[in-house]
Specification:
The complex is a heterodimer of chains A (294) and B (268). Chain A is 77% helix and 0% strand. Chain A has helices at residues 3-13, 17-52, 64-70, 72-104, 108-119, 126-137, 142-149, 163-188, 191-199, 204-232, 236-241, 249-258, 263-288. In chain A, helix 12 (249-258) packs antiparallel against helix 13 (263-288). Chain B has helices spanning 2-31, 48-54, 57-90, 96-108, 111-124, 131-154, 160-167, 172-201, 204-209, 217-227, 231-267. Classes of the chains: A mainly alpha (294), B mainly alpha (268).
């Protein structure tokens, strides 16, 4: 980007020969990244933005695709994706926090082992983890055959291909991304602060709400980022565990690009999803003062 | 007394979460050895599903494709990402903050958006989808991860060592290959491994950018899953799981051994 201009300006500021050579070196080192990301990342995104305001098949400019997203049918999809992401994030926080807390307070020699034990299942591909739940939940799966053999049910329950199954799959898939940052923040917590709180007369509950939780909030904030953003764009878990019933914005985009072949409308949905994520992260970062996150 | 009850409750809770984390995986592995095709009731032990995998040409080809894409994209993105990390660590220049923000974008943009935008791009320039299109896509998202990781390691790098080498008569090339590179090698290796892992693990971007002949392993798993639950998928998943766990455990072990050696060296 504007490399020569930048160089010219720098040259005016500092005429030392060394400085000039160094800057030249910086941009030379960055050149492959500029080119690759410019051509294969930024340019494709611009194409999507362009398609999203183009008339289908024609060359005219239009906002009809964005207007169509407001249609109750599609509006509901966006709304559902948002809420499912919120719900998944909330459940993972509730499940992960006490777990991470117990892990961080476990005897030292156990700690690393337990932490490693909690991430090992997630070294494998998320498709495989989703598949494992399909084996358990489907109509002739483990849960149904156990219940049937106990005589509790006569006909198999439909567990798979329901919104509940999608939620379960999402929570299972993203739980460790919440556990790890919360664990890190609890691990860093100074025990003397908790002692001080109780010495000063705080009850355990007060200490938790007024000392522990505020001090470990950055861990939760980082976890929210790692869970909420990918869940928002997820289409595979809803596809596999929700059948065709649970449509999210990810499924909408996939469908418009691969089946309906309405790329203009699919592009508009992609741009909205991207904008939600990028703007959301900016606000989020300012709010929580996260460093090193976009 | 109350304290003890609380400890019990905490232990129970931890056990329950571990049950939740491991139950699906244990079921998956156990039923990969089940005779019945329906994998709901245990009917007897068999290696049949593994034997079937062994002779399935599509799976071998998908594994090969994944390895080609993984290694190629990891090599290219490590080179580009390391150069970028170097530039960002060493120099300050106008527009640096903007470029750094831009470099983070591929990490935060939803994968599906990256997938469809590349699909649209390849269609526009009439590039047929295949191994090369997935590789290009994987490099595009890996550069950022490599740059972030290598840069984090560069903070510990002492650049006066480079100056010392040059003062002692080494030229730029010699300095780079004999002083700089060996010192930053662990960081570069970490970047390479992350890139390789992300590429082997990626399904979503490959799903949109791979052509019919370039099915990667996760894509193969996905198409088998859509076809239905069969013990063959259990067997394939078990094998992938086994490989990943072995590599992971060995990696952890090596890291720990190295850390101990370094700590020992410092103490001596």
């Amino acid at each position: 980007m504007a490399t020569s201009q930048t160089l010219a300006r720098e040259r005016a500021l500092d005429t030392s020969d060394v400085m000039r050579r160094k800057l030249y070196g910086a941009h030379l080192l960055l050149l492959p990244a500029y080119l690759w990301l410019g051509l294969f990342f930024l340019f494709p995104l611009l194409i999507i933005v362009y398609y999203s305001v183009s008339q289908a098949g024609g060359a005219g400019f239009t906002l009809e695709h964005y207007a169509r997203l407001w249609d109750p049918l599609y509006g509901r999809i966006l709304w559902r994706s948002f809420w499912l992401a919120v719900l998944t994030t909330a459940i993972t926080i509730v499940l992960a926090y006490p777990f991470a807390y117990a892990l961080a307070r476990a005897p030292r020699r156990w700690r690393m082992f337990l932490l490693m034990l909690s991430v090992i299942p997630f070294w494998t591909n998320f498709l495989i983890r989703t598949y494992a739940w399909m084996v358990i939940l489907r109509s002739n799966g483990l849960v149904n055959s156990v219940l049937a053999s106990l005589g509790l049910i006569e006909r198999p329950l439909s567990l798979l291909y329901t919104p509940g199954a999608v939620l379960l799959g999402l929570v299972y898939g993203f739980l460790p991304f919440m556990i790890l940052p919360i664990y890190a923040s609890i691990d860093r917590l100074e025990p003397s602060l908790l002692e001080a709180a109780s010495d000063l007369g705080a009850r355990p509950r007060q200490t938790f709400w007024r000392v522990t939780l505020p001090l470990t909030a950055p861990g939760i904030a980082a976890g929210v980022l790692l869970v909420f953003v990918p869940v928002l764009g997820m289409f595979v878990i809803p596809d596999l565990m929700g059948g065709a019933k649970v449509t999210l914005v990810g499924n909408l985009i996939q469908n418009q690009f691969l089946s309906a072949r309405n790329w203009e409308f699919g592009s508009a949905a992609s741009v909205v999803l991207m904008a939600l994520v990028v703007i959301g992260l900016r606000i989020y970062k300012r709010f929580f003062r996260l460093e090193g996150v976009f | 007394m109350r304290h003890r009850g609380l400890r019990w409750a905490a232990g129970l809770y931890v056990a329950l979460i571990f049950l939740f984390l491991y139950l699906p995986i244990v079921v998956l592995v156990v039923f990969s050895f089940n005779k019945s095709r329906l994998n709901a009731v245990w009917t007897g032990f068999t290696f049949d599903w593994y034997r079937q995998l062994w002779t399935d040409f599509a799976i071998w080809r998908a594994t090969g494709n994944s390895l080609i894409v993984g290694v190629a994209s990891a090599v290219i993105s490590t080179a580009i990402g390391t150069m970028a990390a170097f530039a960002l660590h060493r120099y300050s220049f106008r527009g640096k903050a903007a470029f750094e923000s831009f470099l983070q974008l591929p990490i935060v943009i939803p994968e599906i958006v990256m997938g469809v935008s590349l699909l649209a791009f390849y269609a526009l320039i009439d590039m047929p989808l295949g191994i090369q299109t997935v590789t290009i896509a994987h490099v595009a998202f890996n550069i950022s991860f490599v740059a972030v990781i290598v840069r984090a390691r560069l903070y510990a790098f002492d650049f006066t060592l480079e100056e010392a080498a040059m003062d002692l008569g080494a030229n730029r090339r010699q300095t780079f290959f004999r002083v700089t590179l060996p010192l930053i090698a662990p960081g570069v290796a970490a970047g390479f491994l992350i890139a390789l892992t992300l590429s082997l693990d990626d399904f979503i971007i490959a799903f949109f950018t791979a052509g019919p002949g370039a099915t990667t392993l996760p894509m193969q798993v996905y198409s088998m899953m859509r076809f239905g639950v069969t013990p063959k998928v259990n067997a394939l998943s078990t094998l992938i799981l086994a490989v990943v766990i072995v590599i992971g455990v060995v990696g952890q072990f090596l890291l720990r051994a190295r850390a101990q050696k370094e700590a020992g060296g410092r103490a001596a």
